[in-house]
Specification:
The structure holds two protein chains of two kinds. Chain A has strands at residues 4-7, 10-13, 19-25, 32-37, 43-51, 54-57, 64-66, 76-78, 87-94, 102-104, 108-112. By secondary structure, chain A is mainly β. In chain A, a hairpin with a 5-residue loop joins strand 4 and strand 5 (43-51). Chain B is mainly β. Chain B has strands at residues 4-5, 10-14, 19-21, 24-25, 33-39, 46-52, 60-61, 64-69, 74-79, 88-96, 102-105, 109-114. Classes of the chains: A mainly beta, B mainly beta.
Chain lengths: 113, 115
């Protein structure tokens, strides 16, 4: 998985709780991404970062926050968990220049009940 | 709207046979990249193959090849000599956003391989 580590692997939250999904890379890449995958669907972009201190919204950012204080870490924060956020979350890095493929972590399965 | 469409929710193939998964996309750009990712039950996303839109030659990676029709905005994946380990979800994706490298994905095709 190209040096992308996601924790935890699984988590169950109650409605209204908050949590942070961790993503760490050990390859010093600038570009990092957060995607979510709902059952039976493809991946949708939540947030991305082109380098430390720089983040931007993707297609489905509502209900999430991110930060990028270091090159290595790109945590995703859920402040008030809702059932609609039940999904599998993937962190990814881009290893090369423009249009290089993304390499994904192993994902976090989150259930909100 | 930028879309990637996979019209086959499920496909099945006999071991050692050949199967083709379909993908169409929408774009107004002339230069872009296309990808096929494999997602086995372990849920890991694995890059299978990629195609550069400005290259007319179809990409090939061992048993995997693509049929890229730029004018038709079609990007199908052919798996030859199918193996049991090929059973997985397959996602077609296209990049957008220029240097940002974001990907938009189709909904996927579930491939079953029969022994």
């Amino acid at each position: 998985n190209a040096g992308v580590t996601q924790t935890p692997k699984f988590r169950i939250l109650k409605i209204g709780q908050s949590m942070t999904l961790q993503c760490t890379q050990d390859m010093n890449h600038n570009y990092m991404y957060w995607y979510r995958q709902d059952p039976g669907m493809g991946l949708k972009l939540i947030y991305y970062s082109v380098g430390a201190g720089i983040t931007d919204k993707g297609e489905v950012p509502n209900g999430y926050n991110v930060s990028r204080s270091t090159t290595e870490d790109f945590p995703l924060r859920l402040e008030l968990a809702a059932p609609s956020q039940t999904s599998v979350y993937f962190c990814a890095i881009r290893q090369g220049g423009d249009n290089s493929p993304l390499h994904f972590g192993n994902g976090t399965r989150l259930t909100v009940t | 709207a930028q879309t990637v469409t996979q019209s086959q929710p499920e496909m099945s193939v006999q071991e050692a046979e050949t199967v083709t998964l379909s993908c169409t996309y929408d774009t107004s750009e002339s230069d872009y990249y296309l990808f096929w990712y494999k997602q086995p039950p372990s849920r890991q996303m694995i890059l299978v193959i990629r195609q550069e839109a400005y290259k007319q030659q179809n990409a090939t990676e061992n048993r995997f090849s693509v049929n890229f029709q730029k004018a038709a905005k079609s990007f199908s994946l052919k798996i030859s000599d199918s193996q049991l380990g090929d059973a997985a979800m397959y996602f077609c994706a296209r990049n957008y956003g220029g240097s940002q490298g974001n990907l938009i994905f189709g909904k996927g095709t579930k491939l079953s391989v029969k022994p």
